[in-house]
Amino acid sequence: MKYSIWYMRPEWFGEGISGARPDPKNLEATHVHLKDIHEFAQTSPLEAIYRAMQGEVWSPRGEARGLIRSKGLEHTSMSVGDIIVPEDSGQVFIVASFGFEEVTAPRTVAEAFAARKSEPAR
User: Fold this and answer.
1) Which among 110, 120, 112, 119 has a CA at the least distance from the CA of 94?
2) Using one digit for the tens of pLDDT, what is the confidence trace for 4-44?
3) Are 6 and 82 in contact (CB under 8 A)?
4) Cβ partners under 8 Å of residue 96, min gap 6
5) What distance in Å separates the CA atoms of residue 34 and residue 5, rounded to the nearest whole number?
6) Contact status, residue 57 vs residue 77, Cβ threshold 8 Å
7) 87 three-class SS
8) DSSP secondary-structure letter at 7?
9) CB 87 within 8 Å of CB 1
10) CA atoms within 13 Å, Cβ hemisphere of 35
11) Long-range contacts: 41-49, Cβ < 8 Å, 24+?
């Protein structure tokens, strides 16, 4: 399976790491398509992709610097708020504070904070 990797645009970064959710039907408004990754044999492909997209793994000596800059991005390691889209699944997953969440609708930072207040303590 192919997975599309989308990184947050710098102007969205603050909102993205604060729990806002992009419109899954308009990722271009908040994210940049960085690259595609093909088949991961692991039983947890999202986790494997997250680990593979850490700067020390895929760009240990700055190999990705040119790609990152050419896309107008400022971060190399996959972070909270970045997106993984499994091809042909109809699903969009966002890196959350703990694991991944499916994005089905946009959400503002205020809505994210309200949702956190209503969650039981971990």
Assistant:
1) 112
2) 999 999 999 999 999 999 999 999 999 999 999 997 667 78
3) yes
4) 80
5) 6
6) no
7) coil
8) E
9) yes
10) 13
11) 45/1, 45/3, 45/86, 46/84, 46/93, 46/99, 46/100, 47/99, 49/3, 49/5, 49/78, 49/84
